[in-house]
Amino acid sequence: MWITIPIATSIFLLAYPVPYKYRSKLISSWSSATLHVLRFICGLKFEISGKENIPDKPCIIFCKHQSTWETMALQLLFTPQVWVLKRELLWVPFFGWQLASMKSIAIDRSSGKKALKQIVEGGTRRLEEGNWVIIFPEGTRKRPGDKPDYKIGGAMLANKSNFDVLPIAHNAGEFWPKGQFVKKAGTIKMVIGPVIKSSELSTKEIHKAAEQWIESTQNAIYEKTY
C-alpha 46: how far from its chain's center? Predict the structure, then answer.
């Protein structure tokens, strides 16, 4: 990754005048190549189930965040996509520049209501432009077994925009956990859940439904029932 990121970022930035829906395919190609190399070097494979639940039009993705792995795997499934992320990530050389070119919604997590307004306004605009919006509802990577801490911003975006939510669970943290350089060989399982209809629910109900599905599915994956 560290060898290819500077090269890939340079290509992405040179392609900046090209419409984003086409540039996003370059990002998806890089992610696919990186995951193939990960499989070859580290023996880390993956299985994705529930693809039949993916709707025909873009919506809001709520994904468990445990690893770097899912940031690449999601690129294979949803194109073009944008992320809601902490603004500090934009300051990382090369990687941050790439994120800035991806129409990311960069928020100051300490700003409270201002951050929520950014998520709702920026997320709605990008959804209406035809982009999938990726939200890691806990805001940061968690290790397997950590207590869930879901933020309200994504559910508020769904309620205000009337765009549906697609929940996703996985166990990437078992093989590539936060802060660990060495990866464990094996097969990551990712499960895509049924769409949560935002037009039929309140913000709190969307929030609760997404958290319950993701956490119960995480437990099922850990128990090897998926």
Answer: 16
Residue 11: partners with Cβ closer than 8 Å, 6 or more residues away = 26
Phi, psi for 147 (deg, rounded to 5): -65, 130
Q: Report the C-alpha gap between 138 and 163 in whole angstroms.
A: 20
Contact in structure between 116 and 150 (CB atoms under 8 Å): no
Residue located via tokens 């994705």: 48
Residue pair 193/217 in contact (Cβ under 8 Å)? The answer is yes
Share the mean pLDDT of the chain.
92
**pLDDT tens per residue, range 90-118:** 888 777 777 888 889 988 877 878 889 99
What type of residue is 216? Answer: S
CATH (residue range 4-222)? 3.40.1130.10
Q: What is the distance between the alpha carbons of residues 219 and 81, in angstroms, rounded to a whole number?
A: 27
Strand-strand pairing, 132-135 and 60-63: parallel
Give tens-digit pLDDT for 129-182: 999 999 999 988 988 888 999 999 999 999 999 999 999 999 999 999 888 888
Are 206 and 165 contacting, i.e. CB atoms less than 8 angstroms apart?
A: yes
Is the pTM value of this prediction over 0.85? Answer: yes
Three-class SS state of 44? strand
